[in-house]
Amino acid sequence: MTYNLTAPCHFGLEKILSCEIKRAGGENIKASDGRVDFTGDERVIARANITCSVAERIGIVLDSFTANTFDDVFNHMKNVPIEEYAGRNDKIHIVKGHSLNSKLTSIPAIQRTMKKAFVIRMQKKYKINTLPETGVTLPIHFLLMKNQMTVTLDTSGVGLHKRGYRAMSNAAPIKETLAAGIIDIARARNAETVIDPFCGSGTILIESAFKAANIAPCLNRNFAAMDWGFADRKVWADAFDEAREAIRKDCGFTALGFDIDKAACELTRENAWKAGVDKYIKVEKRAIKDFVYPEGKSKIITNPPYAERMGDINEAKEIYRTMGKRMLPLGENELYAITSVEDFETLFGEKASKNRKLYNGMLMCRLYSYV
Ligand SMILES: C[S@@+](CC[C@H](N)C(=O)[O-])C[C@H]1O[C@@H](n2cnc3c(N)ncnc32)[C@H](O)[C@@H]1O
Questions:
Q1: Cα 192 to middle of ligand 1, angstroms
Q2: Which of 138, 149, 233, 258 is the most exposed, having the fewest neighbouring CB atoms within 10 Å of its CB?
Q3: pTM (global) more than 0.85
Q4: Angstrom distance (rounded) from CA 338 to CA 359
């Protein structure tokens, strides 16, 4: 069966996600702000969940319509053939939703309306008065934007940024999906040296190692759709096998992580080990004032402290000046730094070859690339 699918992503990473979805076998790929729509069967759903590094989740689009009133919501949801996905005992869970510039604004009221419509339909289809809800949970998401409502059945469950290696983190970790996007922009691949002089919990180094060794980022976790009655276990097992077989065995990649904080260095080591990429990653406690390039060409990919999230703005600015003193001239090395501080280039002491707008959560940042 072919499904209409959608994958949300960080603004600015839509092109990267479109390529990943194409590699997963998706068709009719259409990128728009913060999401990529596509079509595919169960195999595509499984592959996209396991392999896409910048997707936040993979959803089956159940309906897309104009919702001016609660009746519109109710009538549309009542006509969604939810019983094709949910068994008699399963639970429909309206996880969460967003309403932007729309007439309907109460999220709980929309959730209640949707749930009521699904329950009535299931009662009728399964000829029962009370739904046992003792089976698996089917998470439903909705987005209402300018009165246009899109309802999706979430096949991922826990967001795809949760790879399974970062149970613990430091104060301001970068989201795994955003880190993966930056690494893609930096084209950090096999046989390269990646350095993160502010490594924190190690996200950039670990995601770089994943890309270099072609390790699917979500190879070591489960997904909501794996438990659903209509999902074929073999399809998932094959997709996992395929991803395992694709891992590069001859990977000559090296990553170096530095941080002023001893606990952060420990955390990076621990997370790298959990992610199964510790053999590629060396970590050392070192402040930016002591930064030196290793021999050969390196790509520095980093998320230095920014004032909004850690410490004081003057401290962050001083760190950027120190970065410039220790890293310039770059020579044949490349630098990719993401920060929300607008005058990064002035403080660092050189204009970037390119800067891109990227959001870190709600925070507008720029990725400064020196290539
Ligand atoms: C924004 S966090 C990096 C988060 C990291 N990308 C992650 O995903 O966990 C910045 C890191 O810079 C470190 N740091 C702060 N001042 C530093 C300095 N002068 N030299 C080196 N590291 C520093 C902090 O300890 C913190 O771990």
A1: 22
A2: 233
A3: yes
A4: 10
